[in-house]
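Quick note —
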Amino acid sequence: MSPWLTVVGIGEDGYKGLGKNARHALLHADQVFGGPRQLALLPPCIRAERRAWPSPFSLNPVLEQRGAEICVLASGDPMMFGVGASLAR
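Predicted structure written out below.
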């Protein structure tokens, strides 16, 4: 099975501050998960369905999409803290 999940660290500079690989993943995603503030940083060229995290927080909505092209937006360094580290566990 090919990779289906990409975790993208997005800063206040939004989409324009992302690298080539992150932009490519977002452009080809079926769904993008993130907080409302992070999702609002994406330009209209990102046509994926935007899904805000549920409250209370749960990773289940992401895990239920295994097999689709999914991006998860996170603030800062997502693999050291937060959602990226949680998904890796």
